[in-house]
Input
Amino acid sequence: MNAWNAAATSADFRGPLDVTRAATAVLDARGRVIGWSAAARRLLGYAPEEIIGRPVGTFLPEPEPAPAPDGPAPGTGTLTDIGTRSARHADGHRLPVAVTICPLADALPAAGTGPARVLVATGLDDLRQWEARQAMLHGLATQSPVGLAIYDNDLRLTWFNTSYGREIGLPLGELSGKRADELYPGEFVTKGYPRGLDAVMHHVLATGEPFLDLHFVGEQPTDPGTEHVWSCSYYRLQDPDGRVLGVCEDSFDITDRYQAQRRLNLLVEAGRRIGTTLDMVGTAREVTEVAVPAFAATVTVDLLRSVLAGGDPDPGEGGVPELVRVASRSRDDPPGRPPHPPYPVAYRRGTLPYRSLSSGGMIRTERTVVVPLRAGGTQMGLVTFDRGATSAVFDGGEVDLADELVVRAAVSIDNARRFAREHAAALTLQRNLLPQRLSPQSAVDTAYRYLPSDDRAGVGGDWFDVIGLSGTRVGLVVGDVVGHGLQAAATMGRLRTTVRALARLDLAPDELLGRLDDLVGQTPEDRAAGLVEGPGPDDAATGVTCLYAVYDPVSRHCTMARAGHPPPAVVHPGGEVTFPDLPAGPPLGLGGLPFESWETELPAGSMLALFTDGLLRCGDRDVDAGLALLGNVLRDDRRPLEELCDRAVAALLPGGAAPDDAALLLVRTRELDARQVAAWELPAEPAAVAAARELATRQLASWDLAELSYATELVVSELVTNAVRHASGPVHLRLLRDLALVTEVSDTGHTSPHLRYAASDDEGGRGLFIVAQLVQRWGTRYVPSGKTIWAEQAFPPDYPGAPRPVG
Output
């Protein structure tokens, strides 16, 4: 008999009325005490010499309990009749006891008085406690939902309760003597503990340290192929003397709860990891990363080709949509396997994916679930979950979970699709609004780089431009619309167009920014009434900064103003780099604050770098660090501008893209040769008109432009006549031979001449009209000392002396 079976016969199982442990008195046929046990002395206080020979009523007053019927003899652990009485203790106090009397069947009768009897008694409280323990043990053995099993010191099964037997589905006789690992192949998933049953029990048996609430995943002997999860606890069994009897296991099947928790955890993980970027392929890959291996062995995501391109779902020719495999993952993939690029897939008729595409609904088998990706009732693709032949089947809850995962993914993919469509539209708009190429200018050499922001931020509103102005001057502009998307791109386009229009008016930089600020800050009432066009209050809310500069290659003067924009870099010949502290000015649209111009003289060969702050900011780098990097590149100013652009981008944006758009415009100044400029000062008197014509004709002859003498004489005559007639002070005449012949007449007046149509009987008013017919374009620009009227004429087609612009 092993230790456990020996323990089963202990007094704890036989109860407090067992004759080997209870108070026992042997009575003769007349009811006198003829035997008295030590337990009886401990319970009732009588010494043997005090009670032997006395009647039973001495310690147990009437009425006596009824004698037990014939039955098993005392000592077998079975008592047939138990009564409760009030016993008298030797010291006189009353003591409630439980009593039973059994006849001694083998005793000799005593002188006609009947058979002798054994009276067994115990304290009533002891009996009640024992009965409660017995009821508890009976409940654990037959009624408890917790499975109980007992393993001996060799860790072999010796007993289990009803719940355990019902769960395992086999009788004890078939399983007795087996080890735990033979019954339940599997492992513990609780971290920090041994993985196998035998290892856990050995530890408990050896150390006495219990293991509580370990989660064990395995299969039942009668249900192979179905994975169950149990919450198990293990503790060592010992008898009252400390002798080790074995190990007790209690277990409860928590498969449903475990699966529900795992599904909830998976949904939480899906909410955290799916849809972190507005990228369809990235979102699809996130779905596979979440679902493998926690939910399925293999997951694939297929999108309609039209959806992947950012368009609406297109069923394709013949109603069979073109699918592209954008993501796939398997639990057997080697660690670190890079994701494959998207590739087209086609499903044969009758396959599960084909049936799902055809029906538009979910198709499932025991271990495969195909769920359509749907948004707004329209199918965008498929997600296929597969568990393989050796894994557990999908139950109803898991099918619902697969559907929930795909619903979440569909929302994110549809958002990414809409973003891709908007991003493509904004990018197209941005590219169309930005200059495709810069017009060649004789005043400057130019190079530029424009880097759109990465896809996460979307298209921005940075812009730049080089604008040819009158008198061979050039306007340089760079601006930044805060924000991204279609609104930012559209705002940029409106601003660029507005700046070009204002620049053609030959406005000074501070005045141009003031006009632009007024337009951006227009009231909503004005825009709603259609009274004004151009940038509006939405642009101001978005935030706009701008820098505008004008360079004159004749005087080598550069005038610039800025509206909340970073100052330019000025590189003098030799490599000295400065960032002039020109007045900042507020961003456009705020109103109420003036803009100020800053002027400097730039030697020929100087370089200007105009840029947006997206070029300077990258990662954690601040603006000052970005300016230092840019300055280091620009110091090598003798290199070609294109090379300097590439080096600046490589130094400042090593990844090739930034969270914001980045624009860089490099300009190297040139000086108009003195042989291309002729200027005279004339008195403001009528005789100056003839002198002006003669000077102009003589200069044109020296430039081999006698062919233009007639038209030039008319232009000079009209412009000088108007200056003498309507202004005071000296009159200045200047001819410029640049990309065209430019005629300029300056005076001290501030009244601009107006082109008008004279009536047939008018004696004057036709001169400016005639000028307009003879030249390509003409206009007026104002300076602090007055105004300049200018006109441009194209060179003859075969003119060999026309300077060729660089760029």
Observations:
- The mean pLDDT is 82.
- The longest helix spans residues 396-433.
- The two ends are 107 Å apart (CA to CA).
